[in-house]
Amino acid sequence: MATTNTKPKMPKTGYVEGAGFAGFRHNIKIDFRRNKVLYFLSIPIIVWYIIFHYIPMVGIVMAFQKFSPALGFFESPWIGFTNFVRFFTGPYFGRLLRNTTMIGVLDVIFGFPAPIIFALLLNEIKVTKYKKFVQTVSYMPYFISMVVVCGLIVDFTQSGGLISHLVSSLTGKAPENLLANPRYYWAIHIISNIWQGMGYGSIIYIAALASVDQEPYEAAAIDGANRWQRTIHITIPSLVPTIMIMLILRMGSLLQVGADKILLLYTPATYETADVISTYIYRSGLQNYDYGFATAVGLFNSVIGTLFLVVTNAISRKYTESSLF
Amino acid sequence: MLKRTLALVLAVLMVMAMFSACSKKDAGGNGGAPAEAKEWNWPLEETKTLSVWLQWTNDYVEEPNELTAIQQIEKNTNVHIEWTHVDGNTAQEQFGLMLASGKYPDIIRGVNSYYPGGTEKGVADGVLAELTDVVDAYMPNYQKLRTSSDQLKKDTVTDDGRIVGPWTITSYFGSSNVTGERVWDGVCVRKDWLDETGMDLPRTIADWEALLPEIQKNHPECEAPLMIGSNGADGLSSFLSAYGVLKDFYHEGPTVKYGPMEDGYKQWLELFHDWYQRGLIDPNFMTNGADILCPSDYLGTGKAFSGLELWGLTDVVLQAQGYNTDENFKIVATSQPVLKEGDTPQIGLDTSSLIKEQLGISKKTEDLELTCRYLDYWYSDECMLLDSVGLEGESYTVDDQGVYHLTPAMQQMVDDGKVNTLSEAMYMYTLGTSDFGLYNWGMFDPIYEGNPALDAYDEFDKSKFDLMMPSSMTLTDEENTEFASLYTDIETLANENTVKFITGEKSLDEWDDYVAQLKQYGVERCIELKQAALDRYNARK
């Protein structure tokens, strides 16, 4: 690693530091030579991102157009911010924003810790066979198709359904159709999300736990720390970097509440709490072929999502020193 | 998921649009003087190829060219067709992709529902050909059918009298009997339970009012004596239409009205709220989706007593599917409920217009005359018979009285297990209900010969369509844009409140506030826009 403050000398092999652009080019060259195969392997992913994530961004222009597929981007008339104004001044803007944020935030508050707690609990199980069994069973719901999951939810929460009966025996009221009551929608949505995603989401934490150094545990045990104290003072701190990265990633998609799930579960009776930005896009944009409007609303959703991501990242960098960028 | 699909669609749209923008836009224009009629003889001397886009699926056959009738049509015309067929769930998406690709098939079925902004917009955008000047010369069969009744003349032109795309015309076995299809959906009840009460088939709201509590008393296990649509009113506006109102826009004489703000709608809400509270209505109606037909595990099992059903879904079918083993189990059809005896049952779903889908001819078609002539062949009686009942002697026979019967070979196909039903046997020959040109809804008569399913038609067919907006009424592009920007919010408000009024979550005392809110959202402007469109439709000649 040769670093000089005067004119940088480029060694034949090895990286250079602090050599400006020339050094950067030099490093890339070396890096490429060393990791040829890795670079080669990444090509499909890069191409995929370019084709499916970057090129389509040009489609954002539709948000400012009265878009017609036959005329394309080049000939559809420009209408400026009309689509945005229409959305912001529409009667449901406030409600949509509230529902989207609430479902997103509640999902993070309750849905995010669930896999962590689950992983910690699993970690305490010492019988390997039992542990593996519980782990496998908990993954299962993740692999059920959303349509089927929603079918199950609809059936169980009907007035004659299992969950509906359970709830009524707890509250003492007559069984009712839970999905028809706007007050219950958020709970149903989030609890079923947890049920479906907890096991699968815990994989990454279980992996992180497996690589935790065992020495501090032994030391703590000798010092007389009990299980609970060991969890609090050793396990959780060693999970924090993983948790923070996962949280930052999660915040970026905070507003992308599962529209497919809501479309399958909501009814006009529950629009009040279940109608979110993406379902509104579906009803007004796609069903009425109003591509421009749908794009405008979708763009708004993405911008807010990006804002969340950046803010969380900044907070995380400041307080925990783990961040994405 | 939705988002990802959208992203993908946008991606493809975008790439396609780039290519289409580079390719030239115009080909085969047809401005100027009307075309001259020439002598035209089928089959052509040399084979020509055309392409057709349509929504069609068949469990047994991969490609329309494998259908016996389609092969015969190719033989008769010597025109080979390259089919692009899409299934119903993805049709809209596929249509968008096809449009964006810039490669339009010569004939496109269903442009009126798939083209954003309608067929006229398609012509204005330079995608579809205008046919006003060529119909006389190139499409004699269609022109004759089109001008055979005042109603058809009105339905097949635009507000300014142009012809932008031929409509599929419905007939009962041919051009001599151009009539709208029979009503194929309606209210049904469990006959065995009805007989226990000793009452007659319910026809008026009062009949239902008396009957439903009896059913509830006799069968306490019946969860849903009456099944209704997921937004309160079902797809036909049953019960609601008794009050002279439909669930969205309708017309009373020449005046357009919006159902959810009318007094009749309020009276209907009062009735349904009362029934809901007494447990006469399905407590899970919002999630059961009985908008066109009841879920079979309800009507078939005794969880429900009445609700909508398709004409062909009889007790026999439900039993065959294993929903019920009771030999007394029987379902019968009744007419749409009316307020008082003698009223005409009204319906809010257009099942029997003289026209069905609209076809578009691509502006890029190489030989406009050939495309028109070929399409026109589909309006001939010969082609109608081929594509509805197949080949004489092979799939059907005609007796001395002119009645059509299926051949034993068709039944044999079912018996051999090649297909499940006689309809499916017929779909090995024809495009079935996905066809175009001159449509023959009578094709189900030989298929269901002697089957009690046909009895349901007698009841369903009593319904009239006086309140329905005409199906070929069109809004202009500007009107459409304004309408769409207002209507989503109005529809949301109306649906949401209707369900709340029925369940009692919102009291009907708040009706006036709700109507005021509808007005605040611009419902009156929507009515104005529809009114303008209806006025133009009525003024068509």
Structure description:
The complex is a heterodimer of chains A (325) and B (541). By secondary structure, chain A is mainly α. Among the domains of chain A are: 1-33, no CATH class; 95-146 and 176-291, MetI-like fold (Orthogonal Bundle), CATH 1.10.3720. Chain A is 68% helix and 0% strand. Chain A contains 17 helices and no strands. Chain A has helices at 20-34, 36-54, 72-75, 82-89, 93-111, 113-124, 128-139, 146-157, 162-171, 185-201, 203-210, 215-222, 227-252, 259-265, 271-274, 277-286, 291-319. In chain A, 28% of the residues are buried. The mean pLDDT of chain A is 85. Chain B is globular and about 75 Å long. Helix content of chain B is 40%, strand content 12%. Chain B has three domains: 42-180 and 353-453, 3-Layer(aba) Sandwich (D-Maltodextrin-Binding Protein, domain 2); 185-350, D-Maltodextrin-Binding Protein, domain 2, CATH 3.40.190; 477-538. With 541 residues, chain B is of the alpha/beta class. Chain B is built from 23 helices and 14 strands. In chain B, a hairpin with a 2-residue loop joins strand 7 and strand 8 (255-258). The model of chain B is unreliable at 12-31 (pLDDT under 50). A six-stranded mixed beta sheet of chain B has the order 2-1-3-11-4-14. Chain B has a four-stranded mixed beta sheet with strand order 6-9-5-10. Chains A and B meet through helix 2, helix 3, helix 14, helix 16 and helix 17 of A and helix 1, helix 3 and helix 21 of B.
Please tag this protein with its features:
heterodimer, A: 325 residues, mainly alpha, MetI-like fold, 17 helices, 0% strand, flat, B: 541 residues, alpha/beta, D-Maltodextrin-Binding Protein, domain 2, 3 domains, 6-stranded mixed β-sheet, 4-stranded mixed β-sheet, 23 helices, 14 strands, 12% strand, globular
Compressed to H and E, one letter per element, the order of chain A equals HHHHHHHHHHHHHHHHH
Helix content of chain B: 25-40%
**What characteristic shape of chain A results from the CA principal axes?**
flat
Major protein interface:
A-B, 56 and 50 residues
Write the CATH architecture name of the domain at 95-146 and 176-291 in chain A.
Orthogonal Bundle
Kindly identify the CATH topology of the largest domain in chain B: D-Maltodextrin-Binding Protein, domain 2
Return residue spans of chain B where pLDDT drops below 50 for at least 5 consecutive residues: 12-31
The residue-averaged pLDDT of chain A reads: 85
Task: Tell me the name of the CATH homologous superfamily of the domain at 95-146 and 176-291 in chain A.
Answer: MetI-like
Task: For the record, give the distance between the C-alpha atoms at the N and C termini of chain A, rounded to a whole number.
Answer: 25 Å
